[in-house]
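Consider the subject:
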Amino acid sequence: MNSKDAGYSLFLLVGAAAFSIFVVICGFRQEGKYSFLGLNKANASQNGNTYTQDFKTETAAVVRRKIASTKWTNASAFILDKQRGWFAVAAHFIGNGRRIYFTLFFNGRVYKSTSLKVSSRADVAIIKIVGDFDSDNFPEPYKFASGTFVGEKVRLRGFHLHPSDSWENKRLTGIFRQYYGDNSHGEIVFDDLSAYVVRVNASLVLPATPDRIEVSNLSASNCIELRLEEEHQSSFGGLSGGAIVNMNNELVGIDFASDSGGGYYVREEGCPPKYIFGKMIYAVPAEELKNLKLSQLLAEQPITFQGLVRRGMFMYKTILEK
């Protein structure tokens, strides 16, 4: 073998070794991606990124898991722009992490999603689906209500965890039991709760927690205060980001907080005390989400004179409102 042939063989050997290393690295990255989403390879292949849900709604459940951790948090979201795959959610669920991916459970299918836009004014954000999706299978988004008034009847719609002893007459999903194969945490349930508006432009001081973004540590000076018509038997955890709609099915607000200290214990003979959660819910006005969506749409416009004028007018309007 001459030196030219030996050099060519060495080049092929090095190239094959480099390609093998590249494949291994990609495999690890892919495995890490699924683990990060709480979608391990077994789940993804067994379930085909689907789960059983025998009803349709504009609302989705969102789950966040940290890498190499069994801890998870969940919230509600709802379709905001079906063509773009945008969903509205509570900003405190998104947190400060920009490169965090979330698992979006929407009408029987599972999607990877990530943060798109977080409001600097209120506890509301937009996430978007990453990858392919078929918008023809999505329901139409809610129309924005022109406003709300004291005494108006509304519905609060969201997904959250219920223990098995409160499943009666509830619309269950198979997210934990069927998708994750986890029977120890109860099940994600769709709630459509009846309430009425107690106050508009209400003021609320939110408690500071490590996960909350800076804006959520401020006083919410223009939130909507709601009172549920019935006592709720489960924690409100997970309802954050849920849609609040009026009787015309128009969006009035986005759920972001509850009166956690408004509950009480019920004691029955022979049974442990049971905590009944309070009835007060606080919502971000829908107008905040409408403005957030508009600002994102303007930001995505091509850089033309007309586009710059529109952005300038929107920024000027925003400054005047502050």
Residues 292-321 form one domain. The radius of gyration is 23 Å. The chain has four domains: 3-37, 47-142, 153-287, 292-321.
